[in-house]
Amino acid sequence: MSAKLICRLIYLRKVVLSMDEIQNRKLHHIRLALDPRVDFKDHCSEIYREIQLVHQALPGLDFDEVDVKQVFLGYRLEAPIMITGMTGGHPSLVSINKMLATLAEKKRVAIGVGSQRAIVKSNFSEDVVASYRIVRETARSVPVIGNIGLNTLRDIDTDTVIRLVEVIDADAIAIHLNPAQEVIQPEGDTRFSLDVIDKVKELVASLRKPVIIKEVGNGLSMETVRIFHNIGVKIYDTAGACGTNWALVETLRNQPGSSRYECGLKLSEWGIPTPLSVIETRYVAEDSFIIASGGVWDGFKAAVNIAIGADMVGVAKPILKNILDNGLERAEAYLDNYIFELKTAMFLSGARNIGELRSKPIILGQKIVNTMLQRGINPHTYLNNTRRMK
């Protein structure tokens, strides 16, 4: 970890000491989320080794013909990427969100904000709202996605959610599901019973903008997606178990030896790896728009997830780390490299655009095939029909 990043994190830690509980937690989360100990490791790497795009020695096109543009929420993006939400909720985060939004605007990619619960808890304090609104004020020509937890949704009415969308001028609202994080979090809210579905249904019907269902890092299963698809949700962010493990983030906030600490350590590989979550989501929601996030930290992993059934990808931690470490220029270089890798994978697979990539041949390893069969998914039918649908 660089000296610059350590200094910035020390500053964040000092700020933590003088805030209320929700804002305190947000800054603490940022500090811990950048710790490599909270990343998924072995299981996910194994899954990616099980998915192979077929190399084409004669791609049938020139590299310059590869087009990675994607349309999302009515915006034409230069690349199928969303900078997913991690920050917001305190005035000290305005500069970070401004840099993230500047990057999104310059590269013409989508951007999400962190949980807006802090806005609700502050009774829409202007200072708190401003730390989120800076995203839209900076990124005016790309999609901006709001964010609220399922459990926060339980405690507020639909009009309040609509107001959350309006105060930051968002194009959609993501409802995040995070049971693994909440059960380990010292202040966790573990109310995840199905009675909340009626409130989501009401929101889908009332909000004039799309509702997105997302996990935070343990993946969406077909059972979960089916529930929300049945009430009209059409956009999903898988946030699979390949990137930041928020259960481990919360583990580090607990006292060593406590029940939550010991349990959290055992959740180090818990969840559905991102490519498998994409498969399960596409299988039960064929007409949906799928964002593959959760450790999709390079362009080759992006290509794999799009080929397996996603429409675009989401990335957060490496961009935030680059900004905190070396500033906007380094984060921009990271994103340039990411897009070049995606284009290279598409070129070598013979895919001219994102749609074509979803129809190119893929070889699946036996472990993934067995998992699909046990989950009731016919691998041949999925590869040749389902993954191509939308």
Automatic annotation (TrEMBL):
Q: Which residues form the FMN-dependent dehydrogenase domain?
A: 283-360
In the record, biological process GO terms are:
isoprenoid biosynthetic process
Report the enzyme's class at the first EC level: isomerase
Q: Name one GO cellular component term.
A: cytoplasm
Give the cofactors, semicolon-separated: FMN; Mg(2+); NADPH
- This enzyme's EC code(s): 5.3.3.2
Q: Which family does it belong to?
A: Belongs to the IPP isomerase type 2 family.
* PANTHER family to which the protein is assigned, alphabetical: ISOPENTENYL-DIPHOSPHATE DELTA-ISOMERASE
Q: What is this protein called?
A: Isopentenyl-diphosphate delta-isomerase
> What is the species listed in this Swiss-Prot or TrEMBL entry?
Desulfurococcus amylolyticus (strain DSM 18924 / JCM 16383 / VKM B-2413 / 1221n) (Desulfurococcus kamchatkensis)
